[in-house]
Design goal:
Structural class: mainly alpha
Number of strands: 2
Strand content: 5-15%
Shape: elongated
Strand order of the largest sheet: 1-2
Helix content: 55-70%
Number of domains: 1
Oligomer: single chain
Order of helices and strands: EEHH
Number of helices: 2
Radius of gyration: 14 Å
Largest sheet: 2 strands, antiparallel
Length: about 70
């Protein structure tokens, strides 16, 4: 099993299970938004959420530290 991405919130590194929970929550939100394809696509807030989710998912999947 591959370890989850290292996620730190306010200086506290999440445990592996906590990071998995964050990943699953993000994936679930992305799937829910994708299921709403149609009129919601034009909604600016939905578009912003989708872009942010793609960025976060890419970081989580890469398992590489983000450069600040």
């Amino acid at each position: 099993m591959q370890d989850e991405a290292e996620i730190t919130i306010s200086g506290t590194k999440l445990a592996n299970a906590e990071s998995m929970t964050v990943r699953v929550a993000i994936d679930t939100l992305a799937n829910v938004l994708a299921a709403g394809v149609g009129e919601q696509d034009a909604d600016e807030v939905t578009a912003l959420y989708r872009q942010s989710l793609r960025n976060i998912q890419a970081l989580i999947e890469s398992r590489e530290p983000r450069r600040q």
